[in-house]
Amino acid sequence: MYEKAWKSILEARYIVIASHMYPDGDTLGSSFALYYTLKKMGKKVKLYNATCNDLPKEFSFLKDFSKINSKLPLEFDLLITCDSSSLNKIGLQKGNFQILNIDHHKSNNGFGDINVIEEDFSSTGLVVYQLLEKNGVTITKDCAIALYSSIADDTGFFRYGNIDKNCFDVAGKLVNYGVNPKEVSNAINSQVSLAKIRLRAYMLNNFILHNDAQIASIVITKEVLKATGAKRSDTKNIISELRDLATVKVAIMLLEQDDFIKVSLRSDGEIDVSLIAMDFNGGGHKSAAGFDVTNVKATELLQELINRLEGR
Q1: Poorest-pLDDT segment among 79-83, 92-96, 160-164, 230-234
Q2: What is the CATH number of the domain that holds 96?
Q3: CB crowding 237-251: b at 16 or more within 10 Å, else e
Q4: Which of 42, 58, 92, 162 has minimal CB crowding within 10 Å?
């Protein structure tokens, strides 16, 4: 599948690389790694994100970050999707172009004409690395930084249960290509906005413990976002602070949007939260998953989730 994927890239005249809506480090890092590589090869390529008005600023250190665009070219012949389990996550529909789907989510529905999916990999960045390595591509420093950012962000900087020897081996090789781990960590973790600090303060003052403190939950309403000045991107990873509580096995965050509720689930690994997410047409991994839901009150949805968890 790697050979076929690379062949589609070589044959394409105009390539669009798409990250999923409200992106994280994995989708951005893997997209940029491909972008740098293909640009160096002389390919005509564009970066696309449907929600580029709310990109996580902590990844703005990546070269050409400002070139992410929410407008598609009128004509292109290859769409490469990175770290998205469905086209809906990107905000696109199938068109008159080939789709190369690169991912590591087990919930991926294989929507591409060519699918490169490695469910056992801890990040899509690792899949992109393997794609480049298997095809003899020289990895530049910029590409290495993007890949390292992808891997580090999706593994919680090598803290989560999805890491393995391959993850560390590749990270080590990327350091040899010029990555400074401390600089990447500082860029991603030490650029927190005041709005996010206010949002974290709200969460820590208002979260609720359930089931003998084994479940923690927080509901963030539109009013809270407005009061703190936070955007959806500012909610990234704050739920992990609730999961870090010693007694907590699962943390739940409900984020109210205009016409739906975004649900984020985090687990200590004992409970597979991706199974719950898939019941709501979402997805993710054993320790981190999520889904969107409409036409339900936050209080009712939260109670349903707690009931499901208590029944496991």
Answers
A1: 160-164
A2: 3.90.1640.10
A3: bbbbbbbeeeebbbb
A4: 42
Beta pairing class for 114-117 and 14-19: unpaired
Q: What is the pTM of this model?
A: 0.90
- The CATH number that applies at residue 214 is 3.10.310.30
- C-alpha–C-alpha distance, residues 16 and 77, integer Å: 8
Question: Do the Cβ atoms of 125 and 23 come closer than 8 Å?
Answer: no
- Cβ of 115: how many Cβ atoms within 10 Å? 18
Give the domain extent around 270: 194-310
Residue 203 and residue 277 in one domain: yes
Sign of the CA dihedral 59, 64, 69, 72? Answer: negative
Q: pLDDT tens for residues 168-217?
A: 999 999 999 999 999 999 999 988 889 999 999 999 999 999 999 999 99
